[in-house]
Amino acid sequence: MGAGYSPPMQKIVMSWSESGGETKSTLAVHLAAGLAIRGKSVALIDLDPQGTATLHCGFPEESIGDCVGSAGLIKGRKTQTLLEYEPKSRGMGKPFWLAPSTPALYALAAGRGYSNHSKFREALEDLEVDFVVIDAGPGFSNLTIAGLVVADEILVPVRARSSK
């Protein structure tokens, strides 16, 4: 590469809301799929211990195998982190990567004082994708705070309420 070349910047987008049931996971999965359809390389990071985004992608807990998933990324591990997700949507979907939620996230969410956000950011940067989409659980767990610290943008879905 010539002088002055700089690689494209990775964008980290997080879907988060303080309350549950606000379609955070649906938004994250659809955003990841939409970006992939547009030719972007994408990693979807499921930081919700309930694993809703992982389940949306069709990966039940027993199918994850040796993948350390999003818990590994939080700890700064870079191997066996991602699964390839290929949508089954009549040929319109494009594959993207998923760092699934694993049972190890429960311990990280409940733990006190997690603050090594630089390891998490470095692990995300090492993924070498255009976009990282983070699905976070509700509230302010250690995982949510880690996501908020590393995110460039935060999408907060809101549900329209009737004024009746």
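The record above closes out task 2.4. Task 2.5 opens with a second protein, given below.
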Amino acid sequence: MRLFFAVLPPPEVRNGIAAAAIHLSMDAKSALVRPDNYHMTLAFVGEVPAAQLATVREIGASQRTCSFTVRFDAYEYWPEAAILVAAAREIPSTLTRLWERIHAGLASHQLARKPELLRPHVTIARKVLQAPVLQAMSAFGWKAQTFNLMQSIRGGVEPTYTVLNTWPLLDESARP
């Protein structure tokens, strides 16, 4: 099973991203990501044997972090991955804590390596082979109140993502 932890946008945010994406100028070979695939990855776990799924679920269930709002305020082209993203230049401390705790849990079970840098983003387009002329972005806020364990199933033009579990983030007034 190919797994990752992610935050999914509420419908109004997903619709706003999709509306903005259709106005971006990209080369003809670029492929816009389907709106139902928009997400912000917290931790990419990768291939996990079905026998370890319970452990990954336990890592998710053990998280006690407050909800947070991420402000996506810039388009970025990442040539190494050939993607165009909406990025957040400022990272809420509660997001950083959740990211660190999930990675610590995964590392304690030798399940995933922690990347050097947290880069909150939403992938808007894939197969972007030429740097597009990036216009100014109308910033949008996204309040994360839950996070998910997702399964990625490859096949076809774009992977299919399935939610395996959803966990609530704490109300901000209940800071741990």
